[in-house]
């Protein structure tokens, strides 16, 4: 799952693949702002065939949070 998330981050938001680790903070380490976060959610929803609610987006702080959320929806 981490590799698929890396692919989404690299392709959709141009994040450096080497920086994408479970403990990476989305805003501080990966420079994802609120607009990029919305784009990320749209890409994740498509890639994993899930729906991410706005409240859930607000709780996504790290790559691990993304992995946990996706795992809970599959």
From TrEMBL:
UniProt xrefs under PROSITE patterns: CARRIER
Keywords: Cytoplasm, Fatty acid biosynthesis, Fatty acid metabolism, Lipid biosynthesis, Lipid metabolism, Phosphopantetheine, Phosphoprotein
Pathway: Lipid metabolism; fatty acid biosynthesis
Underlying gene: acpP
Source domain of life: Bacteria
A Pfam family that the UniProt record links to this protein: PP-binding
Record-linked SUPFAM superfamilies: ACP-like
Similarity field: Belongs to the acyl carrier protein (ACP) family.
GO BP of this protein: lipid A biosynthetic process
HAMAP family reported for this sequence: Acyl_carrier (MF_01217)
Location of this chain's protein in the cell: Cytoplasm
GO CC terms in record: cytosol; membrane
Known role: Carrier of the growing fatty acid chain in fatty acid biosynthesis.
Residues in Carrier domain copies: 1-74
GO molecular function terms noted in the UniProt entry: acyl binding; acyl carrier activity
InterPro entries: ACP (IPR003231), ACP-like_sf (IPR036736), PP-bd_ACP (IPR009081)
Location of O-(pantetheine 4'-phosphoryl)serine modifications: 34
Main location: cytoplasm
Protein name as catalogued: Acyl carrier protein
PTM field: 4'-phosphopantetheine is transferred from CoA to a specific serine of apo-ACP by AcpS. This modification is essential for activity because fatty acids are bound in thioester linkage to the sulfhydryl of the prosthetic group.
């Amino acid at each position: 799952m981490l590799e698929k998330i890396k692919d989404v981050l690299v392709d959709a938001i141009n994040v450096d693949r080497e920086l994408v680790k479970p403990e990476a903070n989305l805003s501080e380490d990966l420079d994802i702002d609120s607009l990029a976060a919305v784009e990320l959610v749209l890409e994740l929803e498509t890639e994993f065939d899930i729906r991410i609610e706005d409240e859930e987006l607000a709780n996504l702080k790290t790559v691990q949070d993304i992995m946990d959320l996706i795992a809970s929806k599959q």
